[in-house]
Amino acid sequence: MSFTSILVTGGAGFIGSNFVRMMAREHPDTKITVLDSLTYAGNLENISDLIDAGRVRFVKGDIRDPIAVRAAMSGAEVVFNFAAETHVDRSIEEAASFIETDVQGTYNLLNFARELKVARYVQISTDEVYGSSDGTDFDEESPLKPGNPYSASKCGGDLMCLAFANTYKVPVVITRSSNNFGPYQHVEKFIPLFTTNAMEGKDLPLYGDGMHQRDWIYVEDNCRAIALVAEKGKTGEVYNIAVGNSQPNLRVAELILKHVGKTDSRIVFIEDRKGHDRMYKLKAEKVRKLGWQPRTDFADAMEQTVKWYVQNRGWWERVKSGAFREYYEKHYKDKLARGKAK
Ligand code: NAD
Ligand code: TYD
């Protein structure tokens, strides 16, 4: 099924841009608006071809800003909220922006989803809200036990969503996925950081003993699940999304070195992250019952992903150096201000 018109917040970030690209490709009749404030993590290059082609309407704005949200959301049938502060290490240094965007921003979006009577509001959340697992799988009813300020802020957003579904009957659904990997992921995150460091001959800084596990899902498999939950999910319900592919970080680091090929890089064990969650584990039968199943094999997708960073060196070098901002200034700033980003 295709939606007539969607608003994708955070559509210039990693998962949001992959989602926008998938929707634009597979649903040619769906009108797509992206609302993104372009924080350090928002990169217009990720969707610039679609903006240039007139396929995506881009609005630079903050999800905490009522005026920007009302303007962007007007006419949207479905809202997908990908916008968030997302990096655990940053949240350990400073949590205020996480609370402002992930809680306050979500609240602001929900208010307008209610007022404008959108047909569906999809909150993109994370397995991290359940906290670290001792080996048991968490289902959607498991208690929330966040282990760091990022996951605590995501819990706040999730709970506000559930409250709006219950109190005002806003047609909310929540997806909680495991760790994503794929193209366009910010280089501060594990897989792109290690891949690009290996290409630069730099060390790969592994936290603690390197035996923390993450259950990796290819980004497009998650995007398909999100679209399906939007279509078939039940209001007020949560859907876990995972493939059951837990890997110790050390193994993933070794795989990256193998795929990058000959390199002078070394894996170095560094002081552990504060409060580092040992592993996340999800039961995802509920989303499978809606008809979802992953299409991607982890080994193949890892090889393809590393290849993407090898082939798109200019992209990540501009992210690492900060030059991607100049791209925005040069190509879009004036045009967007005049409302003509073509
Ligand atoms: P990201 O950091 O790559 O992108 C976030 C985007 O949101 C950026 O484009 C940024 O500019 C934008 N943004 C941030 N604050 C904003 C604000 N106040 N107003 C408007 N835009 C703002 O994040 P990601 O990895 O793509 O994650 C997207 C969503 O998926 C997040 O909600 C995250 O919690 C969730 N999630 C991510 C993962 C993962 O592995 N990356 C796993 C599970 C869930
Ligand atoms: P990350 O990509 O930050 O995602 P999250 O913490 O949200 O799961 O990290 C994934 C795993 O990789 C996590 O266990 C922390 C580890 N890690 C390192 O060992 N070194 C690093 O430099 C980074 C960024 C992460």
Fold and architecture overview:
- The mean pLDDT is 96.
- It is built from 14 helices and 13 strands.
- It has helices spanning 14-26, 48-52, 66-73, 88-93, 96-115, 149-168, 190-200, 219-232, 249-260, 285-289, 298-311, 313-321, 324-331, 333-337, and strands at 5-9, 31-36, 56-60, 78-81, 120-126, 172-177, 180-181, 204-207, 213-215, 217-218, 237-241, 246-248, 267-270.
- It has one domain: NAD(P)-binding Rossmann-like Domain (Rossmann fold, 3-Layer(aba) Sandwich).
- It is of the alpha/beta class and 342 residues long.
- Strands 3-2-1-4-5-6-11 form a 7-stranded parallel beta sheet, sandwiched between helices. A two-stranded parallel sheet has the order 7-10. Strands 8-13 form a two-stranded parallel ribbon.
- Helix 6 (149-168) links the parallel strand 5 (120-126) and strand 6 (172-177).
- The longest helix is centred in the N-terminal third of the chain and has 20 residues, at 96-115.
- Helices cover 44% and strands 16% of the residues.
- The radius of gyration is 19 Å and the shape is globular.
- Bound molecules: nicotinamide-adenine-dinucleotide (NAD) and thymidine-5'-diphosphate.
